[in-house]
């Protein structure tokens, strides 16, 4: 009897276990081949991301396979399809998906995608679809892409003048029956077919800038001499247009933002009216701000200076250069000078560059001119016939590199004299042969051919008419010369004191940095001791 009861309960357990088996879910090994899709990978939502060819261990159930696409508005649409893993480890899906799927009833799913052709007339090199596939238009136009049904975006990435990166594009829908729908008749055609033609808005850009090269930031560039105005085909969005300045601290992009709206019109901020023209039209003119460049009498031996290392100008005339606000640099034979120009055209020189030859004067004007030397001589003088005219003069120049001077003296009696000096004082000695009044003219020219002039009147008297103490007059001349010499030496001493102060300031700063480093080194040493020698 006991044996019969045990047998009964054993049969009950077997029947209960057999009834439980269908409800136990066992993961199936399946494979997915998406290598024909125009994407680098796919996603089974809720399970993870996979490569184009993957073997998966997945529980039976209902799933969605696809990828997320990026749209110009920033919304991420999902493109893909539903499928099922049966309990026996095989795929099943709707018959409507046979257009781009195969493998129903097997454990291997082949995703061939829907072939859509994209043709571009845009003035860009690269295009993106759904943020998952890109191609170079010049090498593949039209391009055949294999995509999943759903919402996609087609366009290109654009860097604005501010440095922000945005996506300029248009949305389209891929249908399961093998066609595409795009609602943008003004910039694209082919809706309802498998061939989409992206035409874009026709925009003209003309440049009046001093720079030879113009670019759409991050997209394309062209030389002003090649085609002006230039016809471009672009999608609605924000663009940065400008040129590159070559400065001492690296290349600096002078660019301004403008927008192309859905109707193909150009718009920009009101503050840019001084540099751009064509608001509300399809023609954008890069007029820039007219900055006056004054290089009169500057380095006549070197006839050209350069703005941003791209535009050359003669140095013997005042000229106007149309440039964008931003950082610029002027190159000339002795060096270079950096200048920042704001949106109102005001010029601000970099004060850390102490070149006295370039200075700011007013708004919209850069002056780069060699300054004339300075000539100091004695005042009018009287002397006796037979007494030599003697004089000491001083010549200097506010431009530190100018130290060699050429002096021409016209004594007023038909005689002249040429003198070459290297800064400082010079002496004159001349004997007049007749009584009278003479105009002495002294012209001085620096090594850059800038000139200064001064004159004095010399009266030669008969000894019986005018009696003067010769010794007193010589002492007076000597005192005047010494006074001027003292003034010049004092100026040089002040300059040396200034240089010494700068040297000691830099030395003090360096010693302070060394002290800081020693303190850090000592702290590190104490830390190591506390860690290892406690």
Spatial shape: elongated
What's the count of strands?
Answer: 44
Low-confidence parts lasting 5 or more residues at pLDDT below 50? 13-24, 297-303, 353-369
**Number of continuous helical runs:** 2
- In the sheet with the most strands, the strands line up as 3-2-5-6-7
Radius of gyration from the CA trace? 43 Å
Main pleated-sheet profile: 5 strands, antiparallel
Structural class: alpha+beta
Indicate the proportion of strand residues: over 45%
Q: State the helical fraction.
A: 10-25%
The separation of the N and C termini measures 81 Å
Question: Please, what is the average pLDDT?
Answer: 78
Descriptive key words:
46% strand, 5-stranded antiparallel sheet, 44 strands, 2 helices, 534 residues, alpha+beta
What do these coordinates show?
The chain has 534 residues and is an alpha+beta fold. It has a five-stranded antiparallel β-sheet, with no helix packed on it. Strands 12-11-14-15-16 form a five-stranded antiparallel β-sheet, with no helix packed on it. It has a five-stranded antiparallel β-sheet with strand order 21-20-23-24-25, with no helix packed on it. It starts with a helix and ends with a helix. Residues 13-24, 297-303 and 353-369 have low confidence and may be disordered.
């Amino acid at each position: 009897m006991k044996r019969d009861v045990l047998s009964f309960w054993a049969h009950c357990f077997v029947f209960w276990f057999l009834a439980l088996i269908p409800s136990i879910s066992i993961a199936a090994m399946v494979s997915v081949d998406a290598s024909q899709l125009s994407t680098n990978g796919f996603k089974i939502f809720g399970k993870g991301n996979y490569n184009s060819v993957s073997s998966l261990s997945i529980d039976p159930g209902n799933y969605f396979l696809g990828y997320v696409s990026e749209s110009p508005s920033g919304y991420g649409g999902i493109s893909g399809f539903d499928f099922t893993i049966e309990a026996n480890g095989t795929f099943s899906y709707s018959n409507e998906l046979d257009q781009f799927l195969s493998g129903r009833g097997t454990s291997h799913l082949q995703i061939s995608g829907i072939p859509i052709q994209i043709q571009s007339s845009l003035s860009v090199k690269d295009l993106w679809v759904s943020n998952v596939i890109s191609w170079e238009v010049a090498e593949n136009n039209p391009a055949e892409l294999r995509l999943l049904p759903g919402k996609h975006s087609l366009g290109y990435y654009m860097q604005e003048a501010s440095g922000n990166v945005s996506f300029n594009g248009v949305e389209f829908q891929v249908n399961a029956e093998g066609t595409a729908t795009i609602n943008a008749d003004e910039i694209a055609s082919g809706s309802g077919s498998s061939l989409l033609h992206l035409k874009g808005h026709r925009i003209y850009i003309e440049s009046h800038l001093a720079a030879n090269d113009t670019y759409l930031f991050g997209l394309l560039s062209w030389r002003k001499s090649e085609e002006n105005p230039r016809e471009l085909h672009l999608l609605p969005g924000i663009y940065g247009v400008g040129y590159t300045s070559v400065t001492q601290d690296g290349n600096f992009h002078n660019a301004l933002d403008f927008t192309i709206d859905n109707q193909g019109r150009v718009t920009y901020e009101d503050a840019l009216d001084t540099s751009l023209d064509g608001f509300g039209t399809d023609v954008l003119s890069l007029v820039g701000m007219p900055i006056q460049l004054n290089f009169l009498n500057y380095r006549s031996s070197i006839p050209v200076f350069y703005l941003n290392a791209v535009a050359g100008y003669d140095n013997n005339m005042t000229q106007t250069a149309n440039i964008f606000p931003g950082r610029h640099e002027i190159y000339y034979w002795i060096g270079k000078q950096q200048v920042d120009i704001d949106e109102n055209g005001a010029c601000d020189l970099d004060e850390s560059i102490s070149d006295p030859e370039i200075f700011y004067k007013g708004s919209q004007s850069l002056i780069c001119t060699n300054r004339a030397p300075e000539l100091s001589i004695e005042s009018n003088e009287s002397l006796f016939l037979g007494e030599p005219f003697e004089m000491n003069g001083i010549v200097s120049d506010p431009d530190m590199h100018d130290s060699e001077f050429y002096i021409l003296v016209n004594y007023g009696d038909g005689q002249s004299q040429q003198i070459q000096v290297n800064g400082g004082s010079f002496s004159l000695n001349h004997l007049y042969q007749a009584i009278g009044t003479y105009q002495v003219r002294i012209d001085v020219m620096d090594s850059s051919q800038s000139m200064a002039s001064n004159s004095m009147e010399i009266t030669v008297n008969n000894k019986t008419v005018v009696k003067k103490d010769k010794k007193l007059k010589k002492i007076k001349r000597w005192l005047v010369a010494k006074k001027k010499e003292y003034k010049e030496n004092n100026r040089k001493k002040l300059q040396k004191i200034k240089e010494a102060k700068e040297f000691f300031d830099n030395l003090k700063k360096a010693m302070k940095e060394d002290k800081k480093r020693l303190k850090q080194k000592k702290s590190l040493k104490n830390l190591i001791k506390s860690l290892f020698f406690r």
